[in-house]
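Final report, Chapter 2: Outcomes

The project's central promise was a pipeline that accepts a single protein chain and returns its three-dimensional structure in a standardized token representation, suitable for archiving and comparison. That pipeline is now operational. To close this chapter, we reproduce one record exactly as it appears in the project archive, with the input sequence first and the structure output second.
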Amino acid sequence: MELTVWIRFSDIVQPVEIREKVQALSLDFGYHYEVKLEPLELAFAARPTKSGHRLEGGFDYAATAPCVRCLKHVPVSGSARFDLEYRPASQAPQEEDVEFAPGEAEIIYYEEDKLPLEEIVSQQMYLELPDKLLCRDDCKGLCPRCGADLNEGACACPPAADDRLTLSPPPKQKES
């Protein structure tokens, strides 16, 4: 049974400390790239601001994600920290590119008054994971022809011929 924990912005009228357990999650980052996150505890302070609500906190995580070369599951762990300000979508600027100074909270505009805590975790995990996660620095990946894991040894495929090294046949001469 899946249980989603929510916070409702309209219920936060004074500063409050929140600690909630978040169940194990399977996060789909697209292109069949799935991160499996172990249960964790999310802790943050929530306080109203003049234009929305500020959430500051973090969580420690342990997860597995696929190596980008061989697709084996790689354990990853760390601590994610965030400083976010949620504002109603009606306050969103009309300009596309808005710059923020370092140290400012990231501003997120919302449509609904409630926010699932899993969404905070998912957003932060997307930022936490490296662009190219490898099982090891010298990962050889998969054979592009048969799909064998080249870290476990050579596959049975014949070596690929490099077309750049083969000589092209001489041009045909016109008979006169």
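Archive annotation: The chain has a mean pLDDT of 88.
This record, like all others produced under the grant, will remain available to the consortium after the project formally closes.
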